[in-house]
Design brief:
This protein has 14 helices and 16 strands. It has 436 residues and is an alpha+beta fold. Helix 3 runs parallel beside helix 8 and helix 6 runs antiparallel to helix 8. The longest helix has 21 residues. It is globular and about 60 Å long.
Amino acid sequence: MRYTEREVLQFVDENDVKFVKLMFCDVFGNLKAISVLSSELPKIFKQGYAFDATQMDGFMGVYETDLVLRPVLDTLSLLPWRPQQGRVMRLFCSIARADGSEFAGDGRGYLLKAVERAKKSGFDFKVGTSCEFYVFELDDKGLPTRIPHDNAGCCEAAPADRGENLRRDICMTLEQMEIYPESSRHEAGPGQNEIDFISSAPLSAADNLVTFKNTVKSVANRNGLYASFMPKPLPDKCGSSLQIMLSCTKNGENVFAQREGCLTTIADRMLGGLLHNLPAMTLFMNGVTNSYARMEAIEPLRHVAWTKYNLNVPVRLRGGEKNGYLMLMTPDNTCNPYFAIGLVINACMDGIENAISAGEPVLHEAAAADGAGEFGIIPKDLREAVKTAGESRFIKKTLPAELVEYVAKCKNAMSDEYEAAQDREIFETAKFFYTL
């Protein structure tokens, strides 16, 4: 829903809003928030809210100037788990430099540009997500343990599935915020859950995913549990992914709808661009060392290919002749969704501009490994992901150089820590389990 400044202030008065959380993400997708009194909103609408980013990681070491938050009015939402009197509202924000110039680490701005680029060529993208996470017990002191909330398997029902009530609570909370899940289920791992979302505009999808992760953690905590989005929190169990579903129309026609079982030229090139650039995009899709433990456990997922079947390869074409869409299987919840979705859209556009063909689909997982020469493989670890991104024409063209340099520096430092650790499992648990 679109709001004017006047309508936002009216909403504040009518709903007894006393505090407003200005929400934004750092380069790596970590949610940040600054609370202000609602009476400050008129001033913030005029001049933004300046903050010192030097006290936080993830803002590219900006020290010569403050950064400025500019609320995006369309993202207005009440936080339903907060008090009903003196209520709390949130607004997502874009980030700029104090002089009004662009901040290279503003993922929201990057995604907006990608959407606008596609629209100039007549393409309208929609994005759905399927998000997996684990739920663990708390100890007597209220601290997270690594004991899963249950031992159920994929799609098991209660009482084996002890996460059913939690997922219902999460979904109902999201609906109060006008975010609409499509389905939920228990996944294959013990205590592992999945919630799927209907397709929406790319910016809304990214906003909704950030909100979803915050909601899951808040609702789990309210229920005496701990939710983790770590890619592989239990070394011998299934990892957790973030699947991105991409649909596209042009002149009202579904681009990915098959014609007599075949892709259109446009669809072939969009898919080709995604496959061609996927190894270089991995740094921004799978952002921690633990991400690669998840993919290592599913070997076919590393071989860049596409299929029409339910195979463990990076991209699936789904939906048949009417409702065609792409499903990207490699990302996880360590990504910044604004940059991740923006890169997916830009990769599709790159495929069109450079006439990159997707080639033939694979019919079984072994064929993906056999055909690995055409589009290569996903980097085997975080350090290799940094190297692959740094050598990519697409990344250099699509992302600001200072952003790529900053991310590379941070991720190489993380790889150094990981490689130097005496016990790498203990290192990853300490670094990621309690934060992701």
